[in-house]
Specification:
The chain is built from 19 helices and six strands. It is mainly alpha-helical and 445 residues long. The chain has one domain: Flavocytochrome C3, Chain A (Flavocytochrome C3, Chain A, domain 2, Orthogonal Bundle), CATH 1.10.1130. The strands form three sheets. It has a two-stranded antiparallel ribbon. Strand 3 and strand 4 form a beta hairpin. The structure holds heme C (HEC) (4 copies). The site of one heme C has 27 residues, from helix 2, helix 3, helix 11 and strand 6. One heme C binds next to helix 6 and helix 15.
């Protein structure tokens, strides 16, 4: 009898130990609590623009966000140094001829630098609209709520400057009080809606990418008020976006001497990543790589020091990949391949521009064929820019990046042939001076 009692007791203890181990393991793998502070020290007003107030409740998130001001380390194709894309690749000066991007176009830096950088760029002039502040400040959500996006965008940049005092901050991504991740940009909210999508039904993991879509998406300025518009009505693939901008005859500028109405793509990071990339399909989010968890003793929080994951790959990739060196070698191959494909497309586009210019200058060129050439140039250049302006040099979605660049090169060469046909001049089929593939740019220390 005594023997059985011992066995039962030992059994019970074993079962309890297993349950305890399970609970501990479960807790260890749980993401940090959304409310790290059970009793918030200060009450944050809705849409509060001052991140330092939120920081009183969440000091780790705040101090890591502030850290983005100091990052300045370059990587082969990215990093936080403010290198000039135009100096790295002078083809861009030709491709953006006649538009502000040919004057000044730098690599992005950390989130704390947004106001310094937008106010310093030569792209902003006396006639620039306030729309350019849309993705630069934690004051925006409050101002949009107060005066509405259309009124905001119809003002001049310089008129809004006194009201904009804070770089990107908590109110761009979080709802005060609940700390939920939210879409705060009305243009992005409208763009999801246009596709019949309600982001409020997104899972937490989906929101860990969607919150970046507040800004890391392509857009255009609609009408004289320059209203921020995200062209997702027909979907988020590059072909869908071209269809949408074609349907409203939108163009950012007319290319000098070719007469092509060009549309500029802007960092479609969310669109490219969600176009069935390997990581997206595996359920990985932007925050998984760019906001890895930091452990400090018993505490665990998401790093808000958002930067290139290649600056700390052990932290960013090591949580899922056991051999970080193997994946880093893959990143190198992917980025080099896409860089070279991109340069090939640029050379094709420059040949296209040269040919259309020559054909347009000839009085007896066939106007219908010339227009066909311009239309092909318009589409080829947008497709190229979709990859060129998106961040990560194709790493976010290598297959899709190569598919798009291949089609862009094809369309550019078709445009060149149409121009030669329009002019009746086969000499326009020759290729130009840029037709060499450079080695990747050397990072400037
Ligand atoms: C699987 C990991 C991973 C995911 C997921 C991911 N990225 Fe990246 N991201 C990278 C890598 C790697 C780079 C390249 C950095 C470099 O070249 O220095 C990069 C570069 C960037 C850059 C440019 C940074 C720089 O230093 O040049 C931005 C901006 C960016 N990503 C935003 C996003 C957004 C927005 C999402 C979600 C839509 C996302 N990323 C999803 C890994 C990831
Ligand atoms: C660019 C968007 C962005 C900004 C700006 C931002 N956050 Fe976050 N924050 C996130 C994301 C993404 C997560 C991960 C949420 C999740 O996993 O559900 C997060 C998580 C958190 C959490 C939950 C605990 C944790 O660390 O994972 C807290 C608290 C938090 N943020 C506070 C802040 C505060 C305070 C600020 C301003 C100082 C801020 N955040 C600014 C995107 C942002
Ligand atoms: C409110 C707009 C906004 C939101 C939301 C936002 N970004 Fe950014 N992001 C920017 C802008 C603008 C820049 C460029 C800042 C500059 O160059 O001054 C930038 C730069 C970056 C960089 C480059 C940093 C570096 O050091 O080179 C990365 C990486 C990045 N963002 C990732 C993300 C990720 C991931 C998310 C979502 C968790 C996100 N961003 C959400 C606007 C935003
Ligand atoms: C949250 C988990 C997670 C993180 C973080 C993560 N990955 Fe991955 N990665 C995956 C998964 C899952 C796959 C797909 C594996 C498969 O299907 O075999 C993958 C696949 C890859 C592949 C192969 C892709 C292909 O199409 O061949 C590369 C390269 C890669 N990851 C690089 C990186 C790099 C670099 C980082 C850090 C910047 C990173 N990953 C961060 C989960 C992650």
């Amino acid at each position: 009898m005594k023997k059985y009692t011992t066995i039962i007791l030992v059994g019970i203890i074993l079962v309890l130990a297993v349950i305890l181990a399970g609970v501990l393991l479960y807790l260890k793998n749980q993401p940090p609590q959304e409310r790290a502070v059970i009793q918030p020290l200060v009450t944050i007003q809705p849409l509060e623009a001052d991140s330092s107030l939120w920081g009183e409740n969440y000091p780790n998130e705040y101090s890591s966000l502030i850290q983005t001001a100091n990052n300045n380390t370059p990587t082969t194709y990215g990093g936080s140094a403010q290198n000039s894309y135009l100096l790295q690749d002078p083809r861009l000066v030709i491709l953006f001829m006649g538009y502000s991007f040919s004057k000044d176009y730098n690599q992005p830096r950390g989130h704390q630098n947004t106001l310094i950088d937008i106010r310093a760029t030569k792209r902003v002039t006396a006639t620039t609209h306030a729309t350019c502040y849309s993705c630069k400040s934690s004051d925006n959500p409050g101002l949009w709520a107060q005066i509405g996006m259309e009124a905001f965008d119809s003002k001049l940049f310089s008129d809004m400057t006194p009201a904009i005092n804070n770089p990107i901050g908590c109110s761009n991504c979080h709802e005060a009080g609940t700390m939920r991740l939210v879409i705060t940009n009305p243009a992005v909210d409208a763009a999801f809606k246009a596709q019949g999508i309600d982001w409020r039904t997104f899972t937490r993991q989906q929101m860990r990418s969607a919150v970046c879509a507040n800004c890391h998406v392509t857009y255009y300025f609609a009408g004289d008020s320059k209203v921020l518009t995200v062209p997702w009505d027909n979907g988020t693939r590059v072909e869908n976006i071209i269809q949408t901008e074609d349907s409203v005859n939108f163009s950012d500028w007319i290319y000098p001497d070719t007469g092509t109405p060009i549309m500029k793509a802007r960092h479609p990071d969310y669109e490219l990543f969600t176009a069935d990339s390997t990581h997206y399909k595996a359920g990985v989010s932007c925050a998984d790589c760019h906001m890895p968890y930091i452990r400090e003793g018993a505490l665990k929080y998401s790093s808000h020091d958002i930067m290139s994951p290649l600056l700390d790959p052990q932290l960013a990739c090591g949580q899922c990949h056991t051999d970080v060196n193997v994946v880093l070698a893959r990143v190198s191959v992917i980025q080099d391949t896409i860089y070279q494909a991109k340069i090939g497309t640029e050379d094709a586009l420059i040949d296209t521009i040269t040919a259309i210019k020559a054909a347009a200058a000839k009085p007896d060129s066939d106007p219908a064929l010339l227009d066909e050439a311009r239309n092909l140039h318009r589409h080829a250049q947008y497709m190229w820019d979709f990859i060129s302006s998106s961040n990560s040099m194709g790493f976010h979605n290598p297959d899709e990046a190569l598919r798009i660049l291949r089609n862009a090169t094809d369309l550019a060469r078709q445009a060149q042939m149409k121009a030669a046909q329009a002019a009746g001049d086969p000499s326009l089929l020759t290729t130009g001076v840029y037709y060499t593939i450079d080695p990747p740019p050397t990072p400037v220390p």
